[in-house]
Amino acid sequence: MKNINWLVRFKNPVFIAQLILSVILPILAYAGLEIKDLTSWLILGNTLLDAIKNPYVIGLVVVSVWHAVNDPTTAGLSDSTQALGYHKPRDNTEDVK
After folding, report:
1. How many CB atoms lie within 10 A of CB 83?
2. N or C, fewer C-beta in 10 Å, the chain?
3. DSSP characters for 28-53?
4. First to last CA, the chain
């Protein structure tokens, strides 16, 4: 996991949203809830606490986070050499050299 450019990934709002959703959605699905059911901080806190107590839910979250972090275009769990050299997320309109 040291070969992942975490600084650049966290500068990308899409990655942040994907990471948050990869934690929250498996918990909500297992609990049979939807986002609209979370009407108070107490309900959210109790739902998260129940999830932490459940090894199956933790497994679902780990797999979901794995999918959010893994780059399927490289071998293993690492960024490409090119991506490791980035200082900000690459603009898709830039020419690739």
Report:
1. 18
2. C
3. HHHHT--GGG--SHHHHHHHHHHHHT
4. 26
Task: Assess whether pLDDT exceeds 60 at residue 1.
Answer: no
How far apart are the C-alpha atoms of 88 and 12, rounded to whole Å? 8
Distance CA 87, CA 5 (A): 9
Distance separating alpha carbons of residues 80 and 56, to the nearest angstrom: 32
Mean predicted confidence (pLDDT) in 42-46:
90
Q: Residue 9 CB: number of other CB atoms within 10 A?
A: 20
Residue 23 and residue 44 in contact, taking contact as beta carbons nearer than 8 Å? no
The pLDDT value given to residue 96: 59
Whether residue 15 contacts residue 9, with contact meaning beta carbons closer than 8 Å, is answered with yes
Determine the Cα–Cα distance for residues 54 and 40; give it in Å rounded to an integer: 22
